[in-house]
Design goal:
By secondary structure, this protein is an alpha/beta fold. Helices cover about 25% and strands about 20% of the residues. The chain has a 12-stranded parallel beta sheet, with helices on one face. Helix 5 links the parallel strand 7 and strand 8. The longest helix is centred in the middle third of the chain and has 14 residues.
Length: about 350
């Protein structure tokens, strides 16, 4: 019986997503608003599922369409929910009415949510909306004491609000979306408010308008007990690599998505800009970064780079410097000479679990 399920996935198939191309809308007067999940009815159905702990709202289309503020509050108010995930579904992607923006005084208290995952799939074309940011700021302020996992889009994350709040139980933070253009002091301020942070990921995409790798991790300070760190499009000059905590066990220096995946999405789905092969780090760049991390006792390491004359040196360095690594992922792109000769090079390593992707 459905009432016994602990997790539920709802797919947004609201006809208003495409109806406005052909005729009048069915649920609302704005195609950006989803009318398929009315707040009162949705809350009532969810409350009829007493064992439900995890709810996911998922949407695959690339146009802008999302739930209203009332619907978001209705979901977060279901008392037995602990995980809420919105994937591809915008929050309040419209100009609000004068009555929207605050949790109503007579609204039920929000549930003790431990996981809030909000990810827009059509990055880097996603654009933060004022109402979207305001809604996130209000909701997360109410949820901050119980949250353990938080995922947000970079475009609309209410950083200034979040940095003013103490997050006593938060363990994992992930940012998706387009890259910030420079280091963001507010991120360091936010991290200082998360004393138990163990897992930090920046899965940010570099757009064609950025002519060089942005230094978004410069002057960024992370502290124990951090265990896992993912940095997309790192800059070798970023000062973060001089002060990584000794508790770190997993380090990922990659692009998001991987450059070879960007090529696929660009060619097939037209989601991303042209792949930024020009911003790929070289072997010597990764070697320079890892040279400043030699004191770390890493167990998992992931790197993505274009090969150059330092390729063999880099591979030997990783094997010698990090002897306790049990998982090594290498996304290696052919050197200029290999490209010219149209040849692939095998990567061989002993005593390691090695994933190799040669492109």
């Amino acid at each position: 019986m459905i009432s016994a399920y602990s997790s539920l996935v709802l797919r947004d198939s609201c006809p208003d997503q495409v109806q406005h191309y052909f005729e009048d809308l069915y649920f609302t007067t704005d195609p950006k608003r989803c009318g398929a999940f009315p707040s009162v009815a949705l809350a009532a159905r969810l409350r009829e599922l007493p064992h439900l702990r995890s709810l996911t709202l998922r949407r695959n289309r690339l146009d802008i369409h999302g739930i209203t503020w009332d619907t978001l509050v209705a979901i977060l108010s279901v008392p037995h929910l602990r995980e809420v995930k919105l994937i591809g579904v915008y929050i309040c992607p419209y100009v609000p009415s004068p009555l929207e923006g605050d949790i109503p005084a007579n609204a039920p208290p929000l549930a003790p949510i431990t996981t809030f995952h909000y990810q827009i799939r059509d990055t880097p074309r996603a654009a933060g909306y004022e109402m979207e940011t305001a809604a996130l700021a209000t909701a997360l302020t109410e949820l901050h004491e119980g949250l353990e996992t938080l995922t947000l889009p970079s475009e609309s994350a209410p950083l200034s609000t979040l940095a003013q709040i103490r997050w006593p139980r938060l363990r994992k933070v992930t940012f998706y979306g387009t890259s910030w253009v420079a280091s963001t002091p507010i991120i360091t301020a936010l991290l200082s408010q998360i004393p138990c942070l163990q897992d930090l990921s920046f899965k940010l995409y570099t757009t064609t308008s950025q002519t060089q790798v942005p230094r978004i991790y410069d002057d960024l300070h992370v502290s124990p007990p951090l265990v896992r760190l993912v940095l997309s499009a790192p800059n070798p000059e970023d000062s973060i690599f001089d002060c990584l905590p000794m508790t770190l066990r997993e380090l990922s220096l990659r692009y998001y998505p991987h450059v070879h995946e960007q090529q696929y999405f660009h060619d097939i789905q037209f989601v991303y800009d042209s792949p930024r092969y020009d911003l790929l780090l070289y072997s010597q760049d990764i070697l320079s970064i890892l040279g400043r991390c030699s004191d770390l006792d890493l167990e998992k390491l992931e790197v993505e780079y274009r090969a150059d004359e330092s390729d063999d040196t880099l591979l030997r360095y990783m094997a010698v410097t990090f002897p306790n690594v049990t998982s090594l992922k290498i996304h290696r792109y052919r050197s200029a000479m290999e490209e010219q000769e149209r040849r692939d090079v095998s990567i061989v390593s002993s005593n390691m679990l090695l994933d190799s992707v040669a492109c």
